[in-house]
Amino acid sequence: MRFNHSSEFLQVNRQLFSLREGIVMGILNVTPDSFYAPSRVTVQIIADRAGQMLQEGAHILDVGGYSTRPNASDVPLSEELERVLVAVETIVKYFPNACISVDTFRSHVAEKAIQAGAHIINDVSGGQADPQMFACVGRLKVPYVLMHSRGNPQTMQSLTNYTHLIEEIMVFFQNRIHKLIQHGCCDIIIDVGFGFAKTLEQNYLVLNQLEKFKIFELPILVGISRKSMIWKLLKSSPDDALNGTSALHLWALSRGANILRVHDVKPAIEILQIYRALQTY
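Now predict its structure.
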């Protein structure tokens, strides 16, 4: 993949996607404990779920073998690796033209997944959990989703104290982007990390000021699908959070988001169509 500032296109696995029009990344959690149960897939149904997402219009499939929901249990490296490789190899076998992202903070899993046919590394720790991650990304010359976070799934909910939230996230990106470039990585996507070391109120503050992160002139990925910032506000549950998710997706696009990471592909594609119409007419 290469990001061209002048053309605003993203090239992944010989396919060209418009950042201006928006990109949908479908979530495939190969885990037993993801916070949204329908997104969890077993080996037997990986191909069916991937096929459905692609048919509904997903541009990228994001495979995760380690649940990063708050208070999630730790997963041994060997177990995460097995889950991820089975999923990647299955998708490559049945859908060789699919664009695959791997949601991992471990450089070993990232490297093996890329070798198995994946194309993008999506790291919720922003390179903080594994000091070898940036070197791995630079060596493999693959795109990298740099997400803002603090701590880990077991501790992040207690790390929400900021003096100046937006400014501190910006400083984080500035420092991490510089280090990534030093390691030879120039294909960087940023993710402000909704739900990661942020309170409900802080999540909405960041979303409302998302356009400020356009200063980095990098694609912005937004992952808010069915998260607690929606269902806690609405006093419902992840299962009942689709309407809220769709509302925030449209808002995020209007504030500069380029990529939506979602559980529900068809509704997200429809949101993109509506957003494009609003931009056109």
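Confidence is low (pLDDT under 50) at residues 1-6.
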